[in-house]
Write a structure and sequence with these properties.
Blueprint (H helix, E strand, L loop, with lengths): L26 E4 L2 E7 L9 E7 L6 E5 L4 E8 L2 E4 L4 E4 L4 E4 L5 E4 L6 E8 L4 H12 L3 H10 L3 E2 L6
Antiparallel strand pairs: 1-2, 2-3, 3-10, 4-9, 4-11, 5-8, 5-10, 6-7, 6-9
Helix pairs in contact: 1-2
Length: 163
């Protein structure tokens, strides 16, 4: 494996770094599942999207699904989270990492009595914010509308593939 092709051709570099203080990172979610937008794809020029997830005790996460265009990685900051790696469930604790390439089946939830916090990385960056903000609303609509919403956001849940 080698480095990608260069994208910057200057000689001295540029002042281009972006600092986002924690207070400027908006989020969304319910009382048992909150998502903070650490670095949205629009802030990273589409290279990645980074999100922090805080889950309360016994919080449902995402059911089994896959993405066609993006990879998803999980890094556990604190607590224990159950992660499905496409074959079986594993318990991830502080410092544990799970990478799921495009097409890889995965799921997660917190079945412990304690809160859990993790980082979620999507590459390349995708506009996941609308998905996070509206999936609960669409879950109350018809299965057809929910499926169309998920597909629009590259989310293929295995329980809806035959619909």
């Amino acid at each position: 494996m080698s480095y990608p092709e260069p994208r910057y051709f200057g000689e001295r570099g540029q002042v281009r770094a972006m600092f986002l203080p924690a207070s400027s990172q908006p989020g969304t979610g319910s009382s048992d599942f909150g998502i903070s937008y650490v670095a949205k794809q629009e802030n990273t020029n589409g290279e990645f999207g980074l999100y922090k997830i805080d889950m309360g005790p016994k919080a449902m996460g995402a059911t089994e699904h896959f993405h066609r265009t993006i990879s998803e990685s999980f890094y556990v900051l604190s607590g224990e989270v159950r992660l499905y790696n496409g074959e079986h469930w594993v318990t991830g604790g502080e410092g544990d990492f799970l990478h799921v390439p495009a097409g890889g089946l995965h799921a997660f939830h917190n079945d412990s009595d304690d809160p859990v916090s993790l980082l979620l990385l999507f590459t390349p960056g995708a506009p996941r914010e609308e998905y996070f903000e509206k999936v609960a609303e669409y879950s109350q609509r018809s299965r057809k509308e929910l499926k169309a919403f998920r597909i629009r956001h590259d989310q293929y849940n295995t329980d809806m593939l035959d619909d």
